[in-house]
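Morning - 2-acetamido-2-deoxy-beta-D-glucopyranose inputs below, output right after.
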Amino acid sequence: MSAFLSDAGALSIGAGVVTAVTAAAATYYLSTRPEPNVLPTIDLNDQAVVLEDGTRLSRFIKDGKLMKNLYDDVKTLYDAFQRGMKISGDEPCLGTRTGPNLEYQWMTYKEVFENSRAFGSALLARGLKPNDSSFIGIYSVNRPEWVFTEQACSMFSMVSVPLYDSLGPDACKFIIKQGDIGYVVCDTAQKTRNLLAKADQCPSLKCIIMMETPSEELTTQASKCKVDLVQFSDFLELGKKNLKEPMPPKESDLATVCYTSGTTGDPKGVMLTHANLISNMSAVAKTALMAISVNSNDVHISYLPLAHMFERGMQIICFMHGCRIGFFRGDVKLLTDDMQALKPTLFITVPRLLNRIYDRIVNSVQGSALKSKLLEWAVKAKTKEVESFIVRKDSIWDKLVFGKVQKLLGGRVKIVITGSAPLEAKVFNFIRAAFGCVVMEGYGQTEATAGITFSIAGDPSTGHVGCPLPCCKVKLVDVPEMGYYAKDNKGEICSYSPSTFIGYFKNEEKTKETIDDDGWLHTGDIGQWLPNGTLKIIDRKKNIFKLSQGEYIATEKIENCYGRSQFVAQAFVDGNSLKNNVVGIIVPDPEVMPGWAEKEGISPDMTELCKNKKVKEMIFKDIVRIGKEAGLKTFEQVANITLYPELFSLENNLLTPTFKNKRPVLRKKFQSVIDDLYAEIEK
Ligand SMILES: *[C@@H]1O[C@H](CO)[C@@H](O)[C@H](O)[C@H]1NC(C)=O
Ligand SMILES: *[C@@H]1O[C@H](CO)[C@@H](O)[C@H](O)[C@H]1NC(C)=O
Ligand SMILES: *[C@@H]1O[C@H](CO)[C@@H](O)[C@H](O)[C@H]1NC(C)=O
């Protein structure tokens, strides 16, 4: 080529040669560029059906009837597993890994079924009734016994009630009492001890079935509390000696009570039936399966808490299709190591984790202008491809730039579904480029069995949460006090669907506040219809307060913004209507800060550097700068901050299972710090 160009004579030969060369180049490009492989199945400029009253419907339902199930033979969780067993009976179902450098060990669908059946038979042998007034508590990280317990419940028409780790012992006590729960399945000695400590206040608690081997001391403690402590494996043996035929539920039966911890006061038990679960999972599966196909070779990595519907929904979809589920080792820090061993093809996640991946990669190239430029080009080029509906991992950019990231995830991920909070457009585009797979975003809440809207496969755009799922009608309702009106296509998001929960357990009043007389679920989120039929989340009724000067503050938005600073791992922003500005608690990034501090001659110890005035000023300046760039108004910016050295986590009860800030708990914990910050400002 260069030889040709340097031959001045060639240019004078005339237009014919130039045309020929151009044509050859174009042919070369076209023959090497792959065909579009993820084409949307509807018009992206017109994604929802608009009814006369402004309600929107999915384009995937033809007769106006909301979707209840994807497969005629799958109406309950029991059916879902049965379908998987027909497809993959002798194929792997659940996998675990006991240490580093070890392969996953697998149990087949039939084996899982037999274990679940034995477990359920043991419950019956102990006198539990096969109907939906039998509640079984599950207090454990994700592992096979969790699945056996849940499958046993659906096989024998009982109800599973997850006790979240992060709800803490008091909430567990509340749930056990409210649900009159006699049997709790528990993973560790520590959790068993937590429960026993409250046993005198939980008269219904009869039996704890523990996965680990109970120590003698624990057994003694249990018998003092008049609680029967049984090992899970012994329970299975009991069931095997008393095997019963399955007694499956009806679709209208209660399947689970899922407690949510979001707001102040006691947790609320969201009651979900089999029909709720199946309609939502079917709708999600239908939408996702337009982009990818799944079979017995597909693998899901299970690490988001099973106590939350997002992960459970995904597992139901996996069982329905005979896919494999591999469990992480119970520690998020080991997740990428587990993923490299498992090589999952399905990956569900939350923005918090994607944001961290993004931050880490962007920060890793910051020292080098060349690397930064390369990354920028790579993202641009791959984004262009996504916009042409080409999704792949084998471009030159994948080889040069993104291969390492993909390898971290095992190298085979073909779909990522993110949910539980909106993902920033910049991060969304980056993840699409870097992962080289289909990335979809869902919006929903537990009360809707998780899903309300979902992005369409092949939609390359960001900044919205897709269009109504085929199981939902969605409308926006005026919120005059915040200035949102349906006539402007803005308002509180309300959904009508077979997946809407049937009520809060023993809480009529809250149920009435949430589901109106016509059956519409009021989400508390504020949405906006975009002209192409997609929904954008713009605000929240919850976590919103007015400052004293009358300006509305959405603290989550501010926190998300500050989280973009490379120095910030987490942020909690608070204020109230008595004040005219907000203040923040900032957790500096433990991976970035020590290095920075050392260069500045400051102690790299996190506790030490959090006390350092220079560090505080530096971080304060950085977040305010980022806030300004992102368009935060002056009154939205923190007026002062405190640095806190310990990450908010599930374990210290400062995060919800979906990794959102637990506001009431954080507020209580930092109340005196917040008061001090205000005192300083007002001085
Ligand atoms: C469940 O079975 C028990 C015992 O047969 C019975 O007392 C109870 O009323 C049943 N509950 C429901 C909801 O059917
Ligand atoms: C839908 O509309 C929004 C807002 O106008 C835009 O950002 C997005 O790119 C659009 N999506 C498509 C697929 O055109
Ligand atoms: C922020 O608070 C610290 C003490 O916590 C105080 O020394 C400082 O002056 C405050 N800054 C502002 C801008 O009020």
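Note: Confidence is low (pLDDT under 50) at residues 1-14.

O.
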